UniProtKB/TrEMBL annotation:
NCBIfam families cross-referenced by the UniProt entry: lytR_cpsA_psr (TIGR00350)
Keywords: Membrane, Transmembrane, Transmembrane helix
InterPro entries named among the record's database cross-references: LytR/CpsA/Psr_CW_biosynth, LytR_CpsA_psr
Family recorded in the similarity comment: Belongs to the LytR/CpsA/Psr (LCP) family.
Protein name as catalogued: LytR family transcriptional regulator
Occurrences of domain Cell envelope-related transcriptional attenuator (ranges): 96-240
Regions that span the bilayer: 20-37
Length: 339
C-alpha cells in the first residue's frame, strides 16, 4: 500500500487497522511459548479485550439475597467465606441443593478450603422450625434459607453464596473441551428407581454428560458422592486455569448467565480470577467431608452428622478464616479416602 493510499484511508478504518494490529501482536506474543510471561500476558489480553464484556455478562448472574446490601470482597487483606451450591432440578421436581460446600478462600496464599456437607444431613432448617434433610432448605427457601441453615449447622457465617444449576454444568464442561477425572473402574447407575447411565473408566477426557453423571451418581455412599464433587471441582479449576481457555471466557459467561447466581460483585469476581491466574502456583484446594451415620426416622432415610466431625470442621474454618493465621500454621484437613 502506497503512502498516498494510506493517507486516503478514513480515520475510522485506520483505527480499525491499528486495533487489529494490536490484537495480532498480542496473539503472536501469547503463542510464542515464552513460559515466564504467559500468565501476565494472558491477563493483559483479558484486560484489553474481554474485561468489560465479561463484567457486563456477569451482571446477569449477580443476585444479592433479599434484605442484604452489596458488599465488596476485601480479598487483598483477608480471607473470605462462601457457600457453594450445586442445584439439581429434574423435570416435574422441586429444585434441591444436591451439593452444599462451605468454602474459605485465602486469595493471597492461593488456597481454598472446602467443607462438604452430605445432602441427607439431618439438621434444623432455619425458618421452618423443624428438622429435615439439609438440602431441603433450598426447596423451602432457596439460597437464603440454605445459607442460614448451613451457618447455624456449622456455627460460622458464610459471607457470600454461589449457586450453579447442574444442567448448566454439562454445557460448561463441553465448552471447556471436557475435563480429566480419576475414574479407574466403570460407574454404572442401575437402580430401578434411578436414571440409567454408564461412565467408562480410563478415558483421558470426559465430556459434559459424563461429568454430570459423575457428580450425580448415588448408588454407593453419600460420603463418596461428596468426595466426587470435590474431585470434580479440582478438575474444573485445573482446566479453567489452562492458558488456552482464556478465549472461551465469553462463551462460558453466556452459559453462566442462565445457570449461575451469586452475590459477589462482578468486578470482584474478575479481580479474584486475575489474582489466581497471575499467582506463582495454581490454587491449592483442601477438602474435608463431614461424615454421618445413616438412620431412618418415620421411615425416611437421614444422615446423622458425627459431632466430632462437625467440631473439627468448625476448627478448620476458624483457622482458615482468621487473617492472623500464618500460612505455615494453617490447620490442614485430615486425609479422607473414597472407599
Amino acid at each position: 500500500m502506497t503512502e498516498q493510499s494510506l493517507k486516503r484511508l478514513k480515520p475510522k478504518k485506520r483505527n480499525r487497522l491499528r486495533t487489529w494490529g494490536i490484537v495480532l501482536l498480542v496473539i503472536a506474543v501469547l503463542g510464542s511459548g515464552i513460559y515466564v510471561y504467559r500468565k501476565p500476558l494472558a491477563v493483559m489480553a483479558f484486560d484489553m479485550f474481554l474485561s468489560g464484556h465479561v463484567e457486563k455478562k456477569l451482571q446477569k448472574s449477580y443476585a444479592p439475597l433479599q434484605g442484604e446490601q452489596p458488599k465488596p470482597v476485601v480479598y487483598q487483606t483477608k480471607p473470605f467465606t462462601a457457600l457453594l451450591l450445586g442445584v439439581d432440578q429434574r423435570d416435574n421436581e422441586p429444585a434441591r441443593s444436591d451439593t452444599m460446600i462451605y468454602s474459605v478462600i485465602r486469595p493471597r496464599e492461593g488456597k481454598v478450603l472446602l467443607i462438604s456437607i452430605p445432602r441427607d444431613t439431618y439438621t434444623e432448617i432455619v425458618g421452618r422450625n423443624k428438622k429435615d434433610k439439609i438440602n431441603h432448605a433450598y426447596a423451602f427457601g432457596g439460597e437464603k434459607m440454605s445459607k442460614d441453615t448451613v451457618e447455624a449447622f456449622l456455627g460460622h457465617q458464610a459471607e457470600y453464596y454461589a449457586a450453579i444449576n447442574f444442567k448448566g454444568l454439562r454445557d460448561v464442561v463441553d465448552a471447556l473441551g471436557g475435563v480429566e477425572l480419576p475414574i479407574t473402574k466403570d460407574i454404572v447407575n442401575k437402580d430401578k428407581d434411578h436414571e440409567k447411565f454408564t461412565i467408562r473408566a480410563g478415558q483421558p477426557i470426559y465430556n459434559g454428560k459424563d461429568a454430570l453423571n459423575f457428580v450425580r451418581y448415588r448408588e454407593d455412599s453419600d460420603f463418596n458422592r461428596t468426595k466426587r464433587h470435590q474431585l470434580f471441582l479440582n478438575a474444573m479449576v485445573k482446566r479453567v486455569l489452562q492458558l488456552d481457555q482464556v478465549s472461551k471466557i465469553p462463551e462460558l459467561m453466556d452459559i453462566a448467565g442462565a445457570n449461575f447466581k451469586t452475590d459477589i460483585l462482578p468486578s470482584n469476581i474478575i479481580d479474584l480470577a486475575k489474582q489466581l491466574l497471575t499467582g506463582d502456583n495454581p490454587p491449592q484446594i483442601y477438602s474435608y467431608t463431614i461424615m454421618g451415620k445413616g438412620t431412618r426416622i418415620n421411615n425416611v432415610f437421614y444422615d446423622l452428622a458425627d459431632k466430632k466431625d462437625v467440631e473439627y470442621a468448625e476448627k478448620l474454618i476458624e483457622s482458615w478464616s482468621n487473617p492472623d493465621t500464618a500460612d505455615s500454621d494453617l490447620l490442614l484437613p485430615e486425609k479422607q479416602v473414597i472407599e
